[in-house]
Design brief:
The chain is an alpha+beta fold. The protein has two domains: 154 residues, Orthogonal Bundle (Ribonuclease iii, N-terminal Endonuclease Domain, Chain A), CATH 1.10.1520.10; 71 residues, Double Stranded RNA Binding Domain (2-Layer Sandwich), CATH 3.30.160.20. It is built from eight helices and three strands, in the order H-H-H-H-H-H-H-E-E-E-H. A hairpin with a 2-residue loop joins strand 2 and strand 3.
Amino acid sequence: MLQLITAEYLYKHHPGATEGELTQTRSSMVNTNTLADLAEQLDLGSYLYLGKGISKGGGRNLKSLLANAFEAVLGAVFLDAGYDAAYHYYLNRYRHLPEPVQDENYKGRLQQVAQERLGQTPVYESEGAKVGTHREYTSVVFAGGDPLGTGHGATKQEAEQGAARAALESLVGTVKPLPAAKVPRASRTRARRPKAPERTSPEPAAESTPLTVLPEPEPALLEPPRSRQFGEPAE
């Protein structure tokens, strides 16, 4: 659902953008940090059903769990009120974030660099081990048979992102997170649908900058409608 929302939005408002620009902008809108911040806006961590171990270990603040929880809420909005409601609900939440969220999609950036420079697609080998009351993952990224970097994290995804960042630093030097796409506050006027330009050959996107996401008109209903209770007659 989330991928469909962002893909439709960028397709409608940036038909002439390169593939690299669209990919980086979409990533900044849906990465784990962004979704976790949106979940914190709703205090979703306090509503999670967790086991005693992970709850005591700080699971309610774990970014991956919070991100998944927000996606679940977005799915509930879709099931209860339809696609348009989910579309505007997500964009309205995103544009009210207090500050841009950093894009840490190092895996995507490493894939692009490795294919351009080495002609290889990165492969990750990850394993987890229990450390005290927590579980820690270690990941090593390879291009061909050569290890490029190693990363550690509380989740497999974090470990792989760490390995990708280490690999990027060894290949291109110091790596800084890409700036996230900024979403201005919604306009009260409806934007016209732009005409699609003639197709051109895509340009390399190694140094692409995320696009600025245009405002969408706010619907009358910003929050998901109340679900009908079991046994309650339809209106």
